[in-house]
Records
---
Amino acid sequence: MNRPLVQSPDGVTLVGGGPVSRAELALCLRYAPKILAADGGADRVLAAGHCPEAVVGDFDSISAAARAAIPVGRQFVIAEQATTDFDKALRSVEAPFVLAAGFTGARVDHGLAVLNALVRHADRCCVLVGARDVVFHAPARLDLSLRAGDRLSLFPMAPVTGQSEGLEWPIGGIGFAPDGMIGTSNRVVAGRVVLAMDGPGMLVILPRGRLAAAIRALRPEWRGPAG
């Protein structure tokens, strides 16, 4: 499958089968109004009173009731088992950014697979939205507008180094690695934080309340929702 199943000039909300509150979904839809469901995420979307633009996955977890409620033309089975439903869905989107809800807070192995996909598909601008945090892959340069005292964590999925401005503990000169030094629980000390990474592999974790700041940093042309 090469063609995108969901296209949007704005953001797209991608919903998985893990826990997702109505507040999380409403927040995502405020910024990314089109919905794509990954397999069993279709049940979550329907339960919240919405119908997805499309459902993608191997369809091993979507309910029969959800399949009956969603038009057949919106259901896309991708049977291969080499990738996860999150991976399949992320590859199916053509949009400035994706907000992914329902992919954190469930099984640890599923969560790790999602983080792996964020790094492998670094060309896809995707932000994971959870109950307390947002997570995204750091581009080569990131310019964030935050508040002093905000938590900012860095977690490497590959060996990587970088530079920073605006953090209590600067990252310059540190060799990060998933089995070595990590950068969790750093703290913002200025209204502007700049990160420059020497390569791919670094995940950025912010409080959920900084979702809009994350989108603006990743997509500076974004002006936010109308109204």
---
Amino acid sequence: MLGSNTKIVNICICMSESLPIKRCAIYSRSSVEKDNLDPFDSVSAQFMACADFIGSQVGKGWRLVDTIYEDRGYSGSHMRRAGFRSLLNDVKFGLIDVVVVHRLDRLTRSLADFQQIMAELNAHDVSVVSVTQQIDMSHHVGRLATNIITSFAEFEREMVGQRVKEKRAATLESGRWQGTSCPLGYVVKDDRLVVDQVESKVVQEIFTRYAN
């Protein structure tokens, strides 16, 4: 019995070795900077989930590339991200066959950008796989579902931005300070700006010299 199991394993290994290798790159992104106190953050969790999925596809010739593509503290509303730009450059150089993400909104939360990204990947015959969203983008129904998901991601981003603006407006209207650091000449007390007697003299001196 043990011998037969060994033969099966050897056959599977030979079959996987005979298949063309699919070079898989993982892209992970988080809008929040990494918390140094928590070594296992959102980006790390995304990477592990994607790596496990790639491992389950070894029999199909999938192999994880060595380069890590990730962005921490970057919004999905734009493509000005170092890790993402590095990924696209390697795609253009023909170093990647499959891009694996935890969710499609890790790539972008803009429908227009998503269509641009997909056009770039398709031009280099690179496919996209979402670990949590089983969608076949080679079919028109899959492409429709992808556009709907991306549209909802864009809508969610806009709603979050609107809520942040409303909160800031309400905070400012109540007279509370919103910034992380106060301007020169002031100190923050009870969430409000209060004149600092020492620093305010420096500010007054600066304006006096400028006026003169």
---
Amino acid sequence: MEDGTITLIGATTENPSFELNAALLSRSQVLVLKRLEGEALERLLQRAENEVGRELPLTLEAREMLKNMADGDGRYALGLVEQILAQDKILEPEGLMKLLQRRAPLYDKGDDAHYNLISALHKSVRGSDADAALYWFARMLAGGGRP
């Protein structure tokens, strides 16, 4: 790593200062990825629409709600888009909430869902978003997770 023979690229939701060996960390450049802002989420939604060849069946208010629900997490936003694209009618904010509450993903603490939920919880806590943190914590508890 010191002379450039080896290039290491990694990604983690953990704090590298605590998880990486000090010798490795001292020879690394750590890049911190920030949550996506509204404009970036909008571009992501537009790319998804271009990819599937149609607009999301959402009113402007519901589209804003979708971006707020994603809370800066592009991967989560695209997961919501998949659920929304299965709809035949245009969704108002109330319809969007019904759809997403009805089709919440299952939680299995041994499956990827556990890591997705704990990651969302961590991001909410780091972002000082108490409402979102409580939401993700409640989702974990409702699915059988232990505090």
